[in-house]
From TrEMBL:
<dbReference type="InterPro" id="IPR020573">
    <property type="entry name" value="UDP_GlcNAc_AcTrfase_non-rep"/>
</dbReference>
<dbReference type="Pfam" id="PF00132">
    <property type="entry name" value="Hexapep"/>
</dbReference>
<dbReference type="InterPro" id="IPR007691">
    <property type="entry name" value="LpxD"/>
</dbReference>
<dbReference type="GO" id="GO:0103118">
    <property type="term" value="F:UDP-3-O-[(3R)-3-hydroxyacyl]-glucosamine N-acyltransferase activity"/>
</dbReference>
<keyword id="KW-0012">Acyltransferase</keyword>
<dbReference type="Pfam" id="PF04613">
    <property type="entry name" value="LpxD"/>
</dbReference>
<keyword id="KW-0677">Repeat</keyword>
<comment type="subunit">
    <text>Homotrimer.</text>
</comment>
<protein>
    <recommendedName>
        <fullName>UDP-3-O-acylglucosamine N-acyltransferase</fullName>
        <ecNumber>2.3.1.191</ecNumber>
    </recommendedName>
</protein>
<feature type="domain" description="UDP-3-O-[3-hydroxymyristoyl] glucosamine N-acyltransferase non-repeat region">
    <location>
        <begin position="23"/>
        <end position="89"/>
    </location>
</feature>
<dbReference type="InterPro" id="IPR011004">
    <property type="entry name" value="Trimer_LpxA-like_sf"/>
</dbReference>
<keyword id="KW-0808">Transferase</keyword>
<keyword id="KW-0444">Lipid biosynthesis</keyword>
<feature type="active site" description="Proton acceptor">
    <location>
        <position position="241"/>
    </location>
</feature>
<dbReference type="InterPro" id="IPR001451">
    <property type="entry name" value="Hexapep"/>
</dbReference>
<comment type="similarity">
    <text>Belongs to the transferase hexapeptide repeat family. LpxD subfamily.</text>
</comment>
<keyword id="KW-0443">Lipid metabolism</keyword>
Length: 345
């Protein structure tokens, strides 16, 4: 796909400085720009590359003042970074604008599928499934019985959506994620053998949720595991049965949340965080990477460590931890001096 500088400027409501008919067909970093590519400049740290880049078109802030001539055609906008992000979203929309049904695929006679759908090869859609408009289901995806999917949802290749799951509007589920698998529930009998507890609940995913690749979200034992509106999950995250994630919370890769824990709204949770079960975590939390959460947290806390404690206290303690050999040496020296003084006395 090729676009002219003027076409891009029209999308971004920007002004062209240079050749409005300059064409681009790919994206690049400004320092790696080449003929036919589009790039952007928003960080002053990279200003020098504007005068050396070979990119055909560069998006810049209107406030930028040139120090010398440039060979690249400029598109001036209010916020270059925001505009480039908008353009990336547009590019993805055009690139992924697939419609129709590839063969072979299976759609149950009792399923309801909306308009402008895309169903890839080897996709499976089960009984009584309800799918909204402009939904894209990529090859080898599985949609179990009684699943409900809203409008403008994309489910990438290999994702598995178990029965009874409810997915809202404008959601994205990336490859190989599993939504609605059984929660980890077992109870020992008199012989010490572990008997499985039936997992009869479901998973509810509200609007505008993004789920990365390789995530597992377990169905509830009873009731629902709930991912609230606007939540963003990175890759390889485990969310156990009956967990609830508050709206607009962001969770980084390899985090695990044990059963029945409630996470608040607008939280930021770093990578490889482990959270115990049956906890209540407040709103606006910041949990640093590799922290272990074993107790409930109040609103606005910032924690780190395993088990986690206050971020500021952790940093102060870590200074002493790194200096433990020096501190031990000083203590040993003082102990020797003290013992020598005692012997003299």
């Amino acid at each position: 796909m090729k676009f002219t500088a003027q076409q891009i400027a029209n999308i971004l409501e920007g002004d062209v400085v240079g050749n409005p008919e300059e064409e681009v067909s790919k994206l690049s970093k400004i320092e790696e720009g080449e003929k036919g590519s589009l790039t952007f400049l928003s960080n002053p740290k990279y200003n020098s590359y504007l005068y050396t880049t070979e990119a055909s078109v560069t998006i810049v802030n209107k406030s930028l003042e040139l120090e010398k001539d440039v060979s690249t055609t400029l598109i001036k906008v209010e916020n270059a970074y925001e505009s480039f992000s908008k353009l990336l979203a547009f590019y993805n929309e055009v690139k992924n604008n697939k419609t129709g049904r590839e063969n072979p695929h299976f759609v149950s006679d009792s399923a309801q599928v909306g308009e402008d759908e895309y169903i890839g090869a080897f996709a499976y859609i089960g009984n009584n499934v309800k799918i909204g408009d402009r939904v894209k289901i990529y090859p080898n995806a599985y949609i179990g019985d009684n699943v409900t999917i809203g409008n403008n949802v994309t489910i990438f290749s290999g994702a598995k959506i178990y029965s009874e799951t409810q997915i809202g509007n404008d959601c994205t589920i990336h490859a190989n994620s599993v939504i609605g698998s059984d929660g980890f529930g077992f109870v020992p009998n008199e012989q010490g053998e572990l008997n499985k507890v039936p997992q009869t609940g479901n998973v509810i995913i509200e609007d505008n949720v993004d789920i990365g690749s390789g995530c597992s979200i377990d169905r509830a034992t009873l009731g629902s595991t709930i991912i609230r509106k606007g939540v963003k999950l990175d890759n390889q995250i485990q969310i156990a049965h009956n967990v609830e994630i508050g709206k607009n919370t962001v969770i980084a890769a390899q985090t695990g949340i044990a059963g029945s824990t409630k996470v608040g709204e607008y939280c930021m949770i770093g990578g490889q965080v482990g959270i115990s079960g049956h906890l209540t975590l407040g709103n606006n939390l910041k949990i640093q990477a590799q922290s272990g959460i074993s107790k409930s947290l109040k609103d606005n806390e910032v924690v780190q460590g395993s088990p986690a404690f206050g971020y500021s206290d952790f940093n102060k303690s870590y200074v002493y931890f790194r200096n433990l050999p020096k501190i031990a040496s000083v203590v040993n020296k003082l102990e020797k001096e003290f013992n020598a003084q005692n012997e003299k006395l």
